[in-house]
């Protein structure tokens, strides 16, 4: 008899950042996680987690227990996609995006971990992939570091073997300073390192076209999230006006929210976030993207995303911040600018016991 879900346990943990991320004026010193354990009748347990970056953990925790736990208890945990559909249906009126989807994503991650453990296979193998190295870029050249600080951080990444780095613009600097920072980065790194530029939804359409035209001269690899996530017409206008990749997707929820990018493809690389659809939706997004010639470079969580990118034909980049290296019992390390998925059953991740028992 297949195992069924018998309990869902949650906890919130707070851990200092190894280096506070200077992406805004009020720099957060502590990273917060919602941890979700899904226990099964056969004695196995799966791990899911969220790091929302901007609070709401108690609300997410309440959603897990009040709205989703009753839906999942007693289900065959191997039917992960069925569980996702049941959670989606049960919260459709209250959700479709936001808290309900994020809470369901944590459970979904834990259920896939359970499914892999039960099969005795890592997720990439369960999904038909191989553990070939995946190109990884160094992310975290935050705007708050200033021009020289961003360059210093990028050089440290390059010295570790990363073939690409990502820096930020907008929000803290004016357009002229942003342009100067990007050109200074290109001059400092030379022509062989890819420079990705993240706007974090900070511009208008006209501003993105105007500033983006000036950034093209620095041979940037992509321009990320130039405008607010829901402005699909703006994305299309910017992509048509510029001769550089315009990318996005991290703030979109599930394949349904990304549908305009599939209906009228203008983004050559999508960056969905596992917190906004779980592993189930990311695999569906990857399939839809592949049908349209779109690549996948998921947002953050490279330890998990190794499994996804190792098992799809349209993999692009992993994003590495270095935030989580000290959290895992067995870290997933970067080797000369690339990462491989863990070969342990499930997703292969487990937090250090002292973090959970502290």
Tell me what you see in this structure.
The protein has 358 residues and is an alpha/beta fold. It folds into two domains: 5-119, Enolase-like, domain 1 (2-Layer Sandwich); 125-354, Alpha-Beta Barrel (TIM Barrel). Helices cover 39% and strands 17% of the residues. The chain contains 13 helices and twelve strands. The strands form three sheets. Strands 4, 5, 6, 7, 8, 11 and 12 form a seven-stranded mixed β-sheet that branches. A three-stranded antiparallel β-sheet has the order 1-2-3. A two-stranded parallel sheet has the order 9-10. A hairpin with a 4-residue loop joins strand 2 and strand 3. Helix 7 (205-215) runs parallel beside helix 8. The longest helix has 22 residues, at 98-119. The protein is globular, with a radius of gyration of 20 Å.
